[in-house]
Write a structure and sequence with these properties.
By secondary structure, the protein is mostly helical. It contains 10 helices and no strands. 29% of the residues are buried. The mean pLDDT is 86.
Amino acid sequence: MKHDRTSDFLYQLFALIIAVIVIHAIYVTVIRPNARVLLAQQAEAQAAGESMVVERSIYIVIKDFEQETCFILAVWAMAIIGMKARYGLEEKRLLAKPLLEVKPGTSILPEDARKYSRPLQALPDNEREFLLPRALLTALQRFGSTRNIHNASSAVKEVCETESDRLDSELSMIRYIIWAIPSIGFIGTVRGIGEALGQASRAVEGDIVGVTTSLGVAFDSTFIALIISILLMFLMHQLQLLQERLVLDTQSYCDVNLIRHLQVR
């Protein structure tokens, strides 16, 4: 399915901007204030020498900038996946419609190609750019000009293969985001370990609060990043499955509703 690249780019840009605004607002108003309160309570208890079991609150686990960035990228990726899934479902619904209305036992001759092309050309602009109408129209035009059934069948296959390659290439941004999220988590790990090493002298003197906090940053950032990447990988594979089934169903539709009815005298 062809779409206006400018509108898709604007959608992705606004989706990123909204994700940044919403996630950052949640962090500023909810997550970081609660994390600061909990960390202050733990620090006071340790300074007073009280024995306590430190509970890892979700606010503390996700409070750092690396986790915030991971959530922003995750929301952005899910917005892109949702857009592409909606396009795929719209195309899939078209497979249930009788676009050609060829009755069983009817033969389509090369002279009839133009007649059967008219309903496809009369579709609304957005539907005419769907994969199925393009495949049917290309096959009919090829059959009408070459008077060869094999050429018509090859035309359907070529259109579907080209669409499959295009759909796969458009997933590159999602793949990049899924790769970037664990990388950002590892950046948090390196930063946390570096901070912990910088406070090693204080730990030797007995003040381990700074070291434990920094090590918490190190491990929490990677933990959150890996969980998010697993979720996004699942969603992306579901999207790929939808797109692959769409291409295969389109080929099957063309074979059953068009190719088998073609006949040359």
